[in-house]
Design goal:
The protein is built from 24 helices and five strands. By secondary structure, it is mainly alpha-helical. β1, α1 and β2 form a beta-alpha-beta unit. α11 packs antiparallel against α13, α13 packs across α18 and α17 crosses α18. It is globular, with a radius of gyration of 24 Å. The C terminus is likely disordered.
């Protein structure tokens, strides 16, 4: 019996571990719901709700090819021990996982369990992340080769006379209720519908709309939770995108609209996805420690509790920031620029430590992917040593990204009596005294003064004598190798063309404003 352990790969299509195991004998597909995992501080009820929906569909999909998913609750090694008393296990199969520290420690225990029993554990790559990578040189080409491989087809499975089990509820797992009323639906069918509608209907405005919290909600692919939990594979998305690009190229130019530019940008984002996951794979400590150690001690270890709560609840008195945080709580999603802005504002203007704010955002994002999340958390907090320090102005971002005020007014209705002209700066309005300190809080910081103070502190570190030596080492290990990407750790940098700057912005995870 070959045990196929499903983790963040909740699908049957392009599941290489399942296909390889089926070539070698009988298969028992297994998902273990681990209460200890769901008690970790970076996971929340919205994640479990998405996973539970996906598991229900996966159990049925596996039944369609011969054997439903076996679901058990408990510690994975305990479950494997029970199975080993029932079946003659010949091997354990799974996809590689770049998860949080808890999952990494869990996998070490599983490896030890297999070793003690003389069993092989075959881990198959799941994304474009390369385990035990010795150098970033050639990484992008390796990603292209990995994504171009043929998709593994769902195999026919022989039925096994063994109780399948059921998907537990959040209450069963003692996971706190999480009223994410506008959360995306889990399951492969929902993921495929998102992929199809993005490539053929919704995505034409992607390049221009991705920065808008309103337009981006429709024009962005919204595939991120499905990629994070594996209801669709990165290879499926990449190959579908390439097929659509080929079809567009053969069409008359007048019929192409903005599609080719949109999908070129989207294809860059697919590389970006695995580029950041690779950072955590190569340097697991960045979940907890500053990537560049010169920043150690720059911010307090413990957050200012009042500021943290105000930021998390969308009650800072900075309307656009508050709108984003409230929208995130209700939907489980924000577009990329707004993610960068809410993290940067927490880190610079409120001077909160990134680990505390990063944990809150991890719990809010339905698409929480540890590799991307913690790499981006540090990048937007300015602690990598190799990325541009971006101190977003939350008032300017409100004017730029919500020019009509529709997004802000939806999520901050307390400002109904504030005129449009002052919506992002209600303290300047004649009606301010009717609202501020009463139905809506006064701003907890002067954003201009706070930004200036933060900039002085960050640049004081960057001017340190040994800063550039360590930054160069970080760039060598983690930086993109694409043409035009400067070594941020070096003192001298050549001027980039506008095209190179655009590419740099994609590779570094956003636009350098």
């Amino acid at each position: 019996m070959n045990i196929v352990w499903f983790k963040r790969d909740l699908r049957t299509q392009d599941h290489a571990a399942l296909a390889h195991a089926a070539e070698r004998g009988s298969v028992l597909p297994l998902y273990v719901v681990e209460p200890e995992l769901w008690a970790q501080p970076d996971l929340a009820g919205r994640h479990w709700d998405f996973v539970a929906e996906s598991l229900t569909e996966l159990q049925a999909d596996l039944a369609d090819i011969g054997q439903p998913l076996i679901i058990r609750v408990g510690k994975i090694t305990d479950v494997l021990e029970v199975l080993s008393d029932v079946f003659e296990i010949t091997a354990l199969w799974s996809h590689e996982e770049t998860g949080n520290a808890w999952s990494y420690a869990r996998d070490r225990c599983v490896r030890a369990w297999c070793h003690d029993r003389g069993l092989s554990w075959h881990e198959v790559p799941n994304h474009g992340v390369i385990r035990r990578l010795s150098s970033r040189d050639g990484w992008a080409k390796a990603w292209d080769r990995q994504m171009a491989q043929a998709q593994a087809k769902p195999p026919a499975l022989a039925p096994v006379d063994y109780e399948a089990g059921r998907v537990p509820s959040a209450r069963d797992l003692d996971v706190a209720p999480d009223r994410c009323l506008e959360r995306q639906e889990g399951g492969r069918a929902a993921g495929l519908q998102r992929l199809e509608s993005f490539l053929h209907k919704r995505g034409e405005g992607y390049r221009a709309d991705m920065s808008s919290p309103l337009l981006g909600a429709t024009s962005c692919s919204r595939l991120s939770p499905h990629l994070a939990w594996g209801t669709v594979s990165m290879r499926e998305v990449a190959q579908a995108t390439w097929a659509r690009q080929r079809a567009l190229k053969s069409m008359p130019k007048a019929d192409q609209g903005k599609w080719r530019g949109a999908l070129n940008s989207f294809n860059g984002r697919l590389h970006w996805h695995c580029h950041f996951m690779q950072k955590l794979e190569d340097e697991p400590r960045l979940e907890f420690e500053n990537l560049h150690r010169a920043y150690d001690g720059m911010r307090p270890r413990e957050p200012d509790a009042l500021r943290l709560v105000a930021w998390a609840n969308g009650e800072t008195g900075l309307p656009f920031l508050d709108a984003c945080m409230r929208s995130l709580r209700a939907t489980g999603w924000l577009n990329f620029r707004m993610r960068a802005m809410v993290m940067a504002t927490a880190s610079y203007h409120l001077w909160l430590p990134w680990r505390a704010t990063g944990l809150h955002l991890a719990r809010m994002f339905t698409d929480y992917e540890p590799g991307i999340h913690w790499s981006q958390t540090q990048m937007q907090s300015g602690t990598t040593g190799i990325n541009t320090v971006r101190i977003y102005n939350p008032v300017k971002q409100g004017h730029d990204q919500d020019p009509t005020g529709a997004f802000t007014r939806r999520w901050v209705p307390e400002l109904a009596v504030i005129p449009d002209k002052y919506l992002q700066e209600p303290w300047r309005a004649e009606t301010a005294n009717d609202v501020l300190g009463k139905t809506y809080p006064d701003r907890i910081v002067d954003h201009v003064v706070a930004a200036r103070e933060a900039r002085d502190k960050v640049w004081a570190v960057r001017r340190g004598g040994s800063f550039h030596d360590e930054a160069s080492a970080i760039q060598s290990k983690h930086g993109s190798r694409k043409s035009g990407i400067p070594n941020r750790g070096q003192r001298g940098r050549k001027r980039l063309s506008s095209k190179q700057n655009d590419q740099m912005r994609l590779d570094l995870g956003g636009d350098a404003t």
